[in-house]
Design a protein that fits this description.
The protein is of the alpha+beta class. Helix content is 33%, strand content 10%.
């Protein structure tokens, strides 16, 4: 984001760590919710793979599927 000058549009950026911490999407979503004091029911996860939808569901977050990514409609619905 910083490379393309887009970081100014975000208050924070989260992802898995290089050492492998929070590589599980459910763990990452839980971390973001806790770090920002967010209520799961007031949030949505926009993702393009089944891991995104599963991580959202495990945390009580609404999952929104994006069809412009790598996943297919069938993968997201499953």
């Amino acid at each position: 984001l910083a490379h393309y000058g887009l970081d100014r549009f975000f208050s924070s950026v989260h992802g898995s760590e290089l050492a492998g911490a929070r590589s599980d999407k459910a763990e990452l979503i839980a971390h973001v919710l806790e770090a920002h004091g967010l209520e799961a029911g007031e949030c949505a996860m926009l993702g393009d793979r089944e891991h995104d939808m599963r991580g959202a569901r495990k945390n009580g977050v609404r999952g929104l599927g994006a069809l412009w990514g790598y996943g297919t409609r069938e993968e997201l619905l499953a």
